[in-house]
Amino acid sequence: MIVIMGAGGATGGATLRSLAALGAPARALSRDPTRLAASLDDRTLALTETAFADAADPDSLRAALKGASQLFLAMANGPRQVEYELRTVELAVASGVEHIVKISAPAAEPLSPVAVSRGHHRVEEHLRATGVTATVLRPYAFMQKLLLLAPGIAAAGVVHGAMGQARCNYVDVRDIGDVAADVLTRPELTGGTYPLTGGRAYSHPELTGLLGELLGRPVHYVDLSPDELHAHLMTRAGMPDWLATHVVEIQRLAVVRREVPDDTVTRLTGRVPRTLAAFLDEHLHLFR
């Protein structure tokens, strides 16, 4: 049995749908399984068992992991993410899970300039130390996160950032889901560490230029200092301090470490990744 931890999130949901497309059954965990089941399309629902689990409740995790042979582990970034993921790994190993696929992050290193990535490194190291077969996926920026920019673009045609001319790798979560489904169903792919990107990296000026072409009107990029962006995200976007700090750190990472596309999606799935232009065009109504 494949268990999906974080099935209600972006990558967990995408992985669940990709598994269903392959005809692979799964158990999807959620704090609200009824709501999760209602959100699934018919094909996915037919192959999915939904179950209650809360990362803060070890007993619920033990029950949800019963009989599992593989675990897809994805949790939202947050102050207790490392604690919850370490606990889930321990409970999964104790429950007899033989293979864990973890969603990690770029620059998952002990001295990473991104705090969240340092946390992912801790979990990766602990996961490997258990002796269980571990596959690590390190996706770059989700295209779906760009939808958070839609209200500001629709209202004022402006995107704020602190990246200058640096380029950022974007990847569609549906491509992440396809790769995750492949490593969960193809034993020859297990045990690797895979960076995941789209086919091209974009600077913020290039991103706003592409949006302007698709919308048929100008979209401007306003470059801020890191401190100015942090203040903007807290006051204008309403982000908590830790999340605003994370966004700034991710953008500064792209400045200090040149980001270039990786071919993992193509190598593992046999097709090219979804393009940013196609993604934006698919959701263009939100930016108008």
SSE blueprint and pairings:
Blueprint: E1 2-5, H1 10-21, E2 26-30, H2 33-39, H3 42-46, E3 48-52, H4 58-65, E4 70-73, H5 81-94, E5 99-103, H6 115-129, E6 133-139, E7 141-142, H7 150-156, E8 158-161, E9 167-171, H8 173-185, E10 193-196, E11 201-203, H9 204-215, E12 220-223, H10 226-235, H11 241-256, H12 264-269, H13 276-282
Parallel strand pairs: 1-2, 1-4, 2-3, 4-5, 5-6, 6-10, 7-9, 8-12
Antiparallel strand pairs: 9-11
CATH class of the largest domain: Alpha Beta
Number of helices: 13
Count every beta strand, where a strand is a DSSP E run of 2 or more residues. Answer: 12
Mean pLDDT: 96
| The CATH architecture of the largest domain | 3-Layer(aba) Sandwich
Q: What percent of residues are in strands?
A: 15-25%
Instruction: Provide the low-confidence segments as ranges.
Output: none
In whole angstroms, the N-to-C terminal distance is: 43 Å
Number of domains: 2
Helical content, roughly?
40-55%
Q: What does the model show?
A:
With 288 residues, the chain is of the alpha/beta class. The protein has two domains: 2-138 and 173-196, Rossmann fold (3-Layer(aba) Sandwich); 145-168 and 199-287, UDP-galactose 4-epimerase, domain 1, CATH 3.90.25.10. The chain is built from 13 helices and twelve strands. It has helices at residues 10-21, 33-39, 42-46, 58-65, 81-94, 115-129, 150-156, 173-185, 204-215, 226-235, 241-256, 264-269, 276-282, and strands at residues 2-5, 26-30, 48-52, 70-73, 99-103, 133-139, 141-142, 158-161, 167-171, 193-196, 201-203, 220-223. A seven-stranded parallel β-sheet has the order 3-2-1-4-5-6-10, with helices on both faces. Strands 7-9-11 form a three-stranded mixed β-sheet. A two-stranded parallel ribbon has the order 8-12. β5, α6 and β6 form a beta-alpha-beta unit. α5 packs parallel to α6 (115-129).
